[in-house]
Design goal:
76% helix; 3 domains; single chain
């Protein structure tokens, strides 16, 4: 075989390798949002409350975030292909366990606890797939081909995250919620086989064979206590000033400080804090965090609004996201092309501004909205879809392009951690905002009710019952889990109206907060990202 023919085969296999990597990436990111439209069905089938439902999202992103850098390091040491394929296998097994969680349990645990543990297994597998795919692309492609590969990678990133609600809606409505997890099994098997054939092995030959357990433990404690504290605030019996909540946040803060100090002293740290001395690297990490917290975490609450607030089923809800999904997919390759024509700083800043404006436009929902009024979200979906389509390739390029190639695994891992922390933080933080706004509105409105024999004690009992039932039960008119106590109450229609309005107003408030988070990301990117920091 001639040298030219060998080179052609090598080039062709590179693109097949990209396809295999995109299989893994698609699965990892699809499962961040595909569950959103399935949550009401899961809640009804497994009889769970709002906090447990949040864990369906947070268990995945939390495990994803805390193990991601360590797994990236293992890839640098033992081979990125090896760890990527292992991650695909673990993710596929986790998906199968999720699908079966409605029919079996781990020991004496509930079905929802079994599902959440299985989501954690998925997150463990995904923690290898996303960052290592980026590092493998960086090692496989050079020059203009790398820009094109990043563009395709970014397009798949945006598309997978955005298409999740639509795919999930179709599967939940036409089959059942378990099918969103069964879908991953054949895709995972195809991805493994394709990766074994097409992906070339790569590793950091200079990497020390040392795993930073100190960093893994302290970072896990920080993340778990932070997210658990934010989710626990949803409990009607607790508040931001409750000793339990303050204690969790204090432990999280101490763990973070210990983590940073310890990593600075480590010879081979899990995350080298010195990377953040590079302004553009820091800017890319902040942009990734704000993107995930402000946009991707928001999809959970938009799905609840469309289903519980406006009465759409899962398929109809997913269909409403189609414009956002299509723009996210179509503009990814364009972003890859523009990276060679303009500075990535401006792509990131402009994309985040599009997202901030788009999300703010979504906040004009109101308790008076009917199903036909979903159209008020459309301008926001268009604007945010443009931003989401353009932003992923430049962020990924900045994460790797501002550090030495030998540290690409750590760099891509840190950027991916920022994304997953953003989703976990955003989901929990928005839940806390919604619960707080819901309880405040319920208390105010019911205290102002005037009806025969409605004493102060009776009002207090109603307030306690509605608050304990939570915003999820209130959004459905107390027709499902948590609403049993109100079905015989003569004031039920009025209580339903108050709870529904409290839920919608709470969602509107958290959408505005999401827009502010995205705007903060745009400002930080403007001041931190510099062309001179880009090395390759």
């Amino acid at each position: 075989m001639t040298t030219q023919a060998q080179e052609q085969i090598k080039t062709k296999r590179k693109w097949w390798a990209l396809a295999a990597l995109c299989f893994g990436l698609f699965m990892a990111l699809l499962d961040v949002t595909i569950v959103n439209v399935a949550l009401p069905a899961i809640q009804s089938d497994l009889h769970t409350d709002f906090s447990s439902l949040e864990w369906v999202v947070s268990a995945y992103t939390l495990v994803f975030a805390v193990t991601l850098v360590t797994v990236s390091r293992l890839g640098d040491i033992f081979g990125r292909k090896t760890l990527f394929i292992t991650g695909l296998g673990v993710f596929t097994i986790g998906s199968l366990l999720c699908a079966l969680s409605g029919h079996f349990t781990f020991g004496n645990l509930s079905h929802i606890a079994t599902l959440n543990i299985s989501r954690g297994v998925q997150g463990l597998g995904a923690s290898a797939m996303m960052p290592l795919s980026l590092a493998i692309i960086s090692d496989t492609f050079k020059g203009k081909q790398r820009g094109m590969a990043f563009g395709i990678w970014g397009g798949i990133s945006g598309f997978a995250t955005a298409i999740g609600p639509l795919v999930g809606g179709i599967l939940v409505e036409k089959i059942n919620w378990q099918s969103i997890f069964y879908l991953n099994v054949p895709i995972g098997i195809i991805g493994i086989l394709l990766s074994l054939w097409a992906v070339a092995q790569s590793k950091d030959e200079t990497a020390h064979k040392h795993i930073d357990l100190f960093g893994l433990v302290t970072f896990t404690v920080f993340m778990f206590c932070l997210i658990f504290g934010l989710i626990r605030v949803n409990d009607a019996a607790l508040s931001w000033r409750s000793p339990e909540i303050l204690g969790l946040f204090a432990i999280a803060l101490v763990a973070l400080i210990v983590f940073i100090i310890g990593e600075l002293k480590m010879k081979n740290p899990m995350v080298d804090p010195r990377l953040f001395k590079i302004p553009s690297f820091t800017g890319a990490a902040i942009a990734a965090f704000c993107l995930s917290a402000g946009m991707y975490a928001l999809l959970f609450y938009l799905s609840l609004y469309l289903q519980n607030g406006l009465g759409f089923n899962a398929w109809e809800t997913g269909l409403r996201f189609i414009v956002f999904s299509a723009l996210s997919f179509l503009l990814g390759p364009l972003a890859g092309f523009l990276m060679g024509k303009s500075q990535p700083k401006w792509l990131v800043v402009i994309s985040l501004l599009f997202l901030a404006v788009g999300v703010w436009l979504m906040s004009y929902i109101s308790p008076a909205d009917q199903a036909a009024d979903w159209i008020i979200l459309l301008p926001g979906f268009i604007c945010a879809g443009i931003g989401n389509g353009l932003i992923n390739p430049p962020i990924s390029n900045l994460a790797i392009g501002t550090v030495d190639l030998r540290r690409s695994g750590m760099a891509s891992g840190v950027n991916s951690v920022a994304r997953q922390i953003g989703i976990a933080f955003g989901t929990a933080f928005f839940g806390a905002i919604l619960a707080s706004r819901y309880t405040t509105t319920i208390t105010e409105k019911i205290q102002n009710l005037h009806a025969a024999q409605l004493t102060t004690d009776a009002k207090a009992q109603i307030i306690k019952g509605v608050s304990n039932a939570g915003p999820l039960a209130g959004s459905t008119g107390f027709s499902g889990q948590g609403g049993e106590a109100f079905q015989q109450n003569p004031l039920l229609p009025k209580i339903q109206e108050i709870a529904h309005a409290a839920f919608i107003n709470g969602v509107s408030d958290l959408i505005k907060v999401a827009a502010i988070i995205l705007a903060i990301g745009a400002v930080a990117s403007f001041f931190l990202i510099r062309q001179k920091d880009i090395k390759h």
